[in-house]
Design a protein that fits this description.
The protein has helices at 11-33, 35-43, 54-71, 77-92, 95-100, 104-119, 126-208, 219-227, 244-251, 253-270, 294-311, 340-356, and strands at residues 233-241, 276-281, 284-290, 326-334, 361-364. The chain is 64% helix and 9% strand.
């Protein structure tokens, strides 16, 4: 029996855990230390599109429309200015500005009036034009400044709150780090204990399912192997050494043990190495193989008997010959817990029919009735 391989020791895992927790600690420390610059960079994007407010864009559209009406003499200048006023109005006319800034509604009414006037192809005088556009522009500027102040206030409050929590985050991270080391050490200890217990259990289980003399499975192993393949079509061979007691009496038990090991190798080769072999006790063996019909089973039985005949192993105590011979009984069955006992009995009966007919032969059970599935 091959010994169960020992696993490598695991201090490397402990160091890996230490490095992982250290990296986590450094990452948390880095994030909490640099959170203020990151937040500041996000909330202070006043120079790009993300940081701009709707009021800023609305004011720019109105300023562009004022410049177009005052300085552009192109035939489509009024139409372009009217379109720019429409864009500025749409960005200006939102609930937040209406509800919180008193200048919003008068400014929108002025823009409405100017938009209708321009729609009639009437261009107001520069003085009136400036008045109609400058009041909304001043209102939008007031909104921009107020929104910027509120934005800065929110940013500062958030940053201050973050700073207050930095110490708590770092302390919590340290506790997590120490607990992680403790739990990892406990895990490694438990893993080693479980690994040792598993190796011992596997060793004892392997010994319990193996024949110590030949190294093949025993009766319990045969039963377990059948149960691991429910529904499969299997062939069972029961193999008995003819006149084995006389062999031991003539040559002694050490030679009998050597014969058993030699026959195991012969049977394995005869079955092409595809069958699982078992020692049922004394001089009786069993072989389990996959087969979908009786023909492969018959070929296997014949191959085992012929292989031993061809080996011509001396048997000085054989009453009917000079060499070792076998008697083999076989049966095909469907692997089920309730069917195995009947299949074993059928193969055993076929084996004893061979013995009754003079030994040195084989027979496959036919026409057996297996119990119905539970």
């Amino acid at each position: 029996m091959n010994p169960v391989p020992r696993r490598r020791r695991t201090p490397g895992w402990l160091w890996l855990g230490l490095m992982s927790f250290t990296a986590l600690m450094l990452l948390i420390a880095y994030e909490t230390r640099w959170v203020h610059p990151d937040i500041h960079a996000y909330f202070s994007q006043s120079g790009n599109l993300t940081g701009q407010q709707l009021a800023t864009r609305s004011r720019r559209y109105l300023e562009e429309s004022l410049g177009t009406l005052l300085e552009d003499d192109a035939p489509d200048a009024v139409e372009r200015a009217r379109f720019q006023i429409e864009l500025g109005y749409s960005l200006f006319d939102i609930g937040l500005y209406r509800n919180e800034y008193a200048c919003t509604l008068p400014s929108l009414r002025r823009l409405d009036g100017l938009y209708d006037t321009l729609g009639r192809d009437v261009v107001p005088s520069p003085a009136l034009l400036s008045q109609d556009l400058l009041q909304p522009i001043r209102c939008l500027t007031e909104i921009e400044m107020n929104q910027l102040d509120r934005r800065s206030e929110v940013t500062n409050r958030f940053v201050e709150e973050t700073r207050r929590h930095q110490t708590l985050v770092l302390a919590g991270s340290l506790v997590i780090y120490l607990l992680g080391l403790l739990f990892w050490g406990m895990h490694v200890y438990k893993h080693r204990m479980a690994d040792r217990a598993t190796r011992e259990s596997l060793r004892w289980m392997a010994q319990a399912l193996r024949d110590p003399l030949t190294g093949i499975g025993n009766r319990s192993a045969l039963h377990d192997d059948v149960l691991t393949e429910p529904g499969r079509s299997l062939g069972l061979l029961l193999i008995d050494i003819d006149y084995f007691k006389q062999y031991n009496d003539a040559l002694g038990h050490p030679d009998g043990d050597r014969l058993l090991r030699e026959l195991v190798a012969l049977i394995d080769r005869a079955l092409g190495g595809s069958a699982r072999l078992y020692r049922m006790g004394g001089d009786e063996f069993a072989a389990l193989l996959h087969c979908d019909g009786t023909q492969p089973l018959e070929q296997g039985c014949a191959a085992v008997v012929e292989a031993v005949r061809g080996a011509a192993l001396p048997h000085p105590g054989h009453p009917a010959g000079a060499h070792v011979t076998l008697s083999v009984g076989g049966v095909q069955f469907i692997a089920r817990r309730d069917a195995f006992a009947a299949a074993y009995s059928a193969a055993d009966q076929a084996l004893y029919r061979v013995k009754a007919e003079g030994r040195d032969g084989w027979q496959v059970a036919s026409g057996i009735t297996l119990p119905a599935s539970l």
